[in-house]
Design goal:
Elements: H1 13-25, E1 30-31, E2 42-48, E3 62-63, E4 68-69, E5 74-78, H2 97-111, E6 120-126, H3 132-143, H4 146-149, H5 170-174, H6 192-203
Antiparallel strand pairs: 1-6, 2-5, 2-6, 3-4
Helix pairs in contact: 1-3
Length: about 210
């Protein structure tokens, strides 16, 4: 029996990362994007409160009437510019990293033909960059947001002129409307019906 007991280390990377996740999930819920800009990098979660197919079961996890948001539809991170070049930063920085990323996501959703931006909310946490990647990984593992796990491509950017010889993502196939995504030239290898079926199966309570 004693051999089965695992020692808890509150200062382990996993424990510290989970404390960041817990703090994020206790942050207030905001419109997408937030009304006021702010500085800092960190992590964020998006929530959907509508009933657009194939997300009919999402209200099981999201209660828009009392703003108790329990299961994100998407989780992401926003890092300072220096982090992308391999630099190490120990503070959240003076850039509007999270705010800018949330505004980008709001534009993507607003341009989708079959989504309503007003049905989305977000919460975010400004945190030191050293914890961002770990916290994002832990949130995705814990909550399995459907736009991270099944409908990939939401966080994609315009590849730019001369780089449109790519396949349209599952997100852009399911939610068409982003102008740059319509320029992608390689036909998709999956059907919208198949994606919708996968999403519904994934969102089932036992899925």
């Amino acid at each position: 029996m004693a051999d089965e007991i695992v020692e808890f280390n509150p200062l382990s990377l996993e424990s510290l990362g989970l404390s960041v996740v817990d703090r994020l999930m206790k942050q207030p819920v905001h419109p997408l994007a937030p009304d006021e800009s702010f500085l800092g990098s960190g992590i964020y979660a998006l929530y959907y409160a509508g009933d657009q197919a194939p997300y009919e079961s999402m209200p099981t996890y999201v209660h828009a009437d009392d703003l108790r948001f329990d299961r994100p539809i998407y989780v992401g991170k926003a890092v300072p510019k220096g982090s992308r070049k391999g630099g190490i930063q120990f503070d959240a920085g003076a850039e509007r990293s999270i705010y800018s990323r949330l505004r980008q996501h709001a534009r993507s959703i607003d341009r989708a033909d079959n989504l309503m931006l007003g049905e989305f909310r977000c919460r975010f946490l400004v945190v030191a960059p050293v914890w961002i990647q770990l916290a994002e990984n832990l949130i995705i593992s814990e909550y399995e947001p459907v736009w991270n796990a099944v409908v990939d491509g939401f966080g994609n950017h315009d590849p730019g002129k001369g780089r449109y010889d790519q396949e349209k993502s599952r997100w852009d196939s399911l939610h068409p409307g982003r102008p740059w995504a319509e320029r992608l030239q390689i036909p998709t290898s999956f059907s919208v019906g198949d994606i919708m079926q996968e999403v519904r199966a994934f969102l089932e309570p036992d899925g």
